[in-house]
Design goal:
The protein is α/β, with parallel strands linked by helices and about 500 residues long. It has a single domain, classed as Glycosidases (TIM Barrel). Helix content is about 40%, strand content about 15%. It has an 8-stranded parallel beta barrel, surrounded by 5 helices. It has a two-stranded parallel sheet with strand order 6-8. Helix 14 runs parallel beside helix 15. It is globular and about 65 Å long. The structure holds 6-O-phosphono-beta-D-galactopyranose. 6-O-phosphono-beta-D-galactopyranose binds next to loops.
C-alpha cells in the first residue's frame, strides 16, 4: 500500500502555573509551619545576591527564624494568594485556561513534616482550592513538592540527606491522594528535580555549615532519596488514584559553541550530567552508565540499595515534563558568560536576553521538545515557560507588555512546529501566570504573569490584581485554539 505522509498539530492543553511558596503567602495562617523558602531574605541585586539568597548557611536561617518581618522575607506574603483565592481563580477562569499547575505547601498540611496526621486547617484550605479550580472548569496539574520543605525536617533530620524523608513524604502524598485524588489529573512528585545540584538549598533542602562549597556526596545522596520518593509515590498513586504521573527537569538546551569536536564532546557530556541524568533515572527507571565516570572523577559516593533499584525500575514516569526559559552554550574556550535559569552559561551571539541575562530562544524550545521525545518516546509536557520582565503599571491602570505577547507568539509557533516534527505534546503551562516572587532572586519585580500584582520587592503595595495586555492576548489565543478544536464551538 502506498502511504501518503501527513503532519498534524493536535490540540493540547493550555495552562498557567504558580507554586505555593512563590504565590500563596499566609505563612502564619491556619497553623502553617515555617518552611525553607520562608527563610530566604530578599537581597537587592548585586553580583552575588542570587547566590546568597539561594544557597543558605545555618546562621542566615537562625537569624530569619527570629524575625517576624515580611518585608525582608518575600516568600512569607508572596502574592498573597491565600487571601485572594476566589478572585485569582476567577481570573484564570476568565482567561479560559484548560489547566492550572499549582503546588501544595507541605508545611501547611504537615507543619513540622513528621506528624502522624495532617493539619485539619491545611486540609480545609486545600479542599477550598481544589474545589474552586475544578468548579472553574480547569484540570489540575499538581506539583507535589515545589522546593519548599518544612524547616523542622531540615533542622531535626538534615533534610533530604536523610532516608527518613522518603517516609514523611509518602505520608504527605497519601494524604493528597486520599483527599484530592479524584480531582487531580497530572501529578509531578518534584519540581525541576535536577535543581538539586545547581541549587541544593532549593532543590534538596541542604543547608551549608559555612560559605564553603557543598559536599557533593551529600547532594547526590539527597537527590537519590528524592528519586526513590518519586518512584514510591508513583507506585502508591498508580494503585489508588486516576491521574498520570510525570517527572520534570530544568531544560538547558545546550549548543556547542563551534563545530570543534571538543566543543561538541563537552556539550554532549554536560547535557548528559546536567540535563538528562535525572529524567533518565525517572523516565527509564535506572541510573545511566555515563554517570559512573562523573561520580568517579568527582569522588562522589552514596548509598543505593537493591530495593531502591527495584522501585525505580518498576515505576517509571508516564510523561516527561520540563521547564524551558533559555538555551545554553558550551565551549572549551574562555568566553563571555551570561546567567540563565539555575546555571551560568556562555553568551550566544545570535540571541537577545532579558534583563537578567536569560537568552531568549524560541527555536530552542522546538529542539528541546524533539530531543526529549526522541529520548523517551513518552508524551511531553512543557510545565514551565515564560518571560521574566520588569513591567510598568501606567497611571491609567494599564500594563502594556507587548514584549511578552511577542515572546509567547514565537514560542507557541515553535511548539506547533515540534508537533509537526512528530512530538507528542500534552500541554503548555505558562509560568507565573499571576505575578509571583522569583524563585532565583526573591524579587517581585521579575514578573512573568498576564496578571499584574501591585507589590514591590519589599512587600509594599496594594496587592491589587490588574490584567496586562497579555491577558487579552492569551485569552483570545486559547479561545481560537478551542474553536479550531471543536469546529466553531468554544468550551464556555
Ligand atoms: C524555575 C522554577 C520556578 C521559577 C522559574 C523562574 O527554576 O521552577 O519556581 O521561579 O524557574 O525562575 P525565577 O523565578 O528565578 O525567574
Amino acid at each position: 500500500m502506498i502511504t501518503k505522509f501527513k503532519t498534524s498539530v493536535p490540540s493540547i492543553l493550555w495552562g498557567g502555573a504558580t507554586a505555593a511558596s512563590q504565590y500563596e503567602g499566609g505563612w502564619q495562617e491556619g497553623g502553617r509551619g515555617l518552611d525553607t523558602q520562608d527563610c530566604r531574605p530578599y537581597i537587592p541585586r548585586t553580583s552575588n545576591a542570587t547566590t546568597k539568597t539561594r544557597l543558605l548557611t545555618k546562621d542566615v536561617i537562625e537569624k530569619s527564624k527570629e524575625s517576624m518581618e515580611i518585608e525582608k522575607y518575600p516568600f512569607r506574603k508572596a502574592s498573597d494568594g491565600y487571601h485572594h483565592l476566589e478572585e485569582d481563580i476567577g481570573l484564570l477562569k476568565e482567561l479560559g485556561l484548560d489547566i492550572y499547575r499549582l503546588s501544595i505547601s507541605w508545611s501547611r498540611l504537615y507543619p513540622r513534616g513528621d506528624e502522624e496526621t495532617p493539619s485539619q486547617d491545611g486540609i480545609a484550605y486545600y479542599d477550598k482550592v481544589f474545589q474552586a479550580v475544578r468548579q472553574a472548569g480547569m484540570k489540575i496539574f499538581l506539583t507535589m513538592n515545589h522546593y519548599a520543605v518544612p524547616l523542622y525536617l531540615v533542622e531535626a533530620y538534615g533534610g533530604w540527606t536523610n532516608r527518613k524523608l522518603i517516609g514523611f513524604y509518602l505520608r504527605y502524598a497519601k494524604t493528597v491522594f486520599e483527599h484530592w485524588g479524584h480531582l487531580i489529573d497530572f501529578y509531578l512528585p518534584f519540581n525541576e528535580i535536577n535543581a538539586g545540584y545547581f541549587s541544593p538549598y532549593n532543590g534538596v533542602a541542604l543547608v551549608r555549615e559555612n560559605e564553603k562549597p557543598y559536599d557533593e556526596s551529600l547532594v547526590f545522596q539527597s537527590l537519590h532519596h528524592q528519586f526513590v520518593a518519586s518512584a514510591k509515590v508513583i507506585e502508591l498513586g498508580r494503585r489508588t488514584v486516576k491521574g498520570k504521573f510525570g517527572c520534570m527537569i530544568a531544560c538547558f538546551c545546550y549548543y556547542p559553541y563551534s563545530c570543534n569536536p571538543l566543543d561538541n564532546l563537552k556539550q554532549t557530556r554536560e547535557e548528559q550530567s546536567n540535563q538528562w541524568f535525572c529524567s533518565d533515572v525517572l523516565a527509564r527507571g535506572y541510573y545511566p552508565s555515563y554517570m559512573n565516570r562523573f561520580f568517579e572523577e568527582r569522588n562522589i559516593s552514596f548509598e543505593i540499595t537493591e530495593e531502591d533499584r527495584a522501585v525505580l525500575r518498576n515505576n517509571p514516569a508516564d510523561f516527561v515534563s520540563f521547564s524551558y526559559y533559555q538555551s545554553c552554550v558550551v565551549s572549551t574556550e574562555e568566553k563571555e558568560k551570561t546567567a540563565g535559569n539555575l546555571v551560568v552559561t556562555t553568551k550566544n551571539p545570535y540571541l537577545k536576553a532579558n534583563e537578567w541575562g536569560w537568552q531568549i530562544d524560541p527555536v530552542g524550545l522546538r529542539t528541546s521538545l524533539n530531543k526529549v521525545y526522541d529520548r523517551y518516546q513518552k508524551p511531553v509536557f512543557i510545565s514551565e515557560n515564560g518571560l521574566g520582565n520588569r513591567d510598568v503599571l501606567e497611571e491609567d491602570g494599564s500594563v502594556h507588555d507587548g514584549y511578552r505577547i511577542e515572546y509567547l507568539k514565537e514560542h507557541f509557533q515553535q511548539i506547533k512546529e515540534a508537533q509537526k516534527d512528530g512530538v507528542d505534546v500534552l500541554g503548555y503551562i505558562m509560568w507565573g501566570i499571576i505575578d509571583i516572587v522569583s524563585a532565583g532572586s526573591c524579587e517581585m519585580e521579575k514578573r512573568y504573569g498576564v496578571v499584574y500584582v501591585d507589590a514591590d520587592n519589599h512587600g509594599n503595595g496594594t496587592y491589587r490584581r490588574i490584567k496586562k495586555d497579555s491577558f487579552a492576548w492569551y485569552q483570545n489565543f486559547i479561545k481560537t485554539e478551542h474553536q479550531s478544536r471543536t469546529g466553531g464551538l468554544t468550551n464556555e
